[in-house]
Amino acid sequence: MDKQTYEKMLKNSTQGKRQKSTSSSYLRVKKEHFKNAVITLCCFSAIIGAVTMTGINALRKAVDEAVQVGTSIEEFKKEAINENTHRTQDGQHYWYDYDSIGEHVKTDEDVYLLYRNLGTTQTNKVLETVDSYNSIENFLETHNFENTNDWTKTANKQIIMQNEIEQKQQEVNKMTEEHQLNSAQNENNNALGGK
Amino acid sequence: MKDVEIYTIDDKEYMLLNKITKNEDTYLYFSNVHEGNDFIIRKLDKEDNEYMIPLNDEDEVKKAILLLTNKQLEA
After folding, report:
1. How far is CA B65 from CA A16, A44, B71, in A?
2. pLDDT tens across B26-64, in order?
3. Of A155, B1, B26, B70, which is most buried with the most CB atoms under 10 A?
4. Is B67 touching A (CB cutoff 8 A)?
5. Nearest-5° angle of CA A8, CA A10, CA A11?
6. How many CA atoms lie within 13 A of B12 on its CB side?
7. Residue A114: HSE in the Cβ half-sphere, 13 Å Cα cutoff
8. Residue A116 and residue A169: Cα distance in Å, rounded?
């Protein structure tokens, strides 16, 4: 992120022509690629003086975490909710298939992601179909959360921590694979060396 | 992996990063799919939401960036 990139974005954004606001296609990109793009754009806040340069690392971290949580919420929506949301016969409204959505609710994190997508009322209707959970009010009480804000803070931290664990695990797996590959190559080399 | 919407703007492919509506203005934030340092912000035309137009000036660009930053921090 630098002044030159900001200037280019400024020029791009204030010039050009009116055009249709519809997407031409879809693409599957790496989460990191998407996240870094959002972070870079948000970090322009430092260049325009809304955030001090010394605060930029804190901002970067906060946005990084927010994007991680946002991505998890979005993924849950895609996997559990979208396919189970249907139009009413008159085509004017939507209805949720609570039972089918409930089948995706297996962990505390799922309850949180459900709540972030549907809000309290609809989440409670889904939870009525799930044996291990009852309602948001009951969930907060049994988990000793004072309110939904308290729950949100803790749940966000858990998602971020879980992502970090998965990332570390991937790094370990990659190192292990490399180590095994190197060992196999060394054995081959030794065998070819003959002694 | 993540599925993103692709828009062609000025013959270049951009992925949609976010869409925010505030006080009747809707901003769309894009990043070039192939160039990491190429960004663009557009807004929906109030007279016809099927179209998007450039922002008025730097002040509006700053406002749009702050909107995005605040939204991310509130998530």
Report:
1. 19, 7, 10
2. 999 999 999 988 999 999 999 999 999 999 999 999 999
3. A155
4. no
5. 65
6. 16
7. 29
8. 27
DSSP output for A99-157: HHHHTT--SHHHHHHHHHHHHHHHHHHHHTT-TT---HHHHHHHTT-SSHHHHHHHHHH
- Helix/strand/coil for A170: helix
**Would you tell me how many other CB atoms lie within 10 Å of the CB of residue A54?**
8
CB of B40 closer than 8 Å to CB of A1:
no
Cα separation, A62 vs A69, whole angstroms: 11
pTM over 0.90: no
The interface residues of chain A toward chain B in range 47-86, judged by CB-CB distance below 8 A, are 48, 50-51, 59, 62-63, 66-67, 69-71, 78
CA-wise closest residue to A15 among B62, B32, B67, B57: B57
A66-112 pLDDT, tens digit per residue, is 888 988 998 899 999 999 999 998 888 999 999 999 999 999 999 99
Which structure tokens are listed for A166?
A: 């998965």
ipTM: 0.94
Q: Check residue B30 and give its pLDDT.
A: 97
pLDDT tens for residues A141-190? 999 999 999 999 999 999 999 988 888 888 888 888 888 888 888 888 88
Query: Who contacts B13 (Cβ-Cβ below 8 Å, separation ≥6)?
Result: A24, B6, B7, B32, B33, B34
Residues of B in Cβ contact (< 8 Å) with A42: 65, 68-69, 72
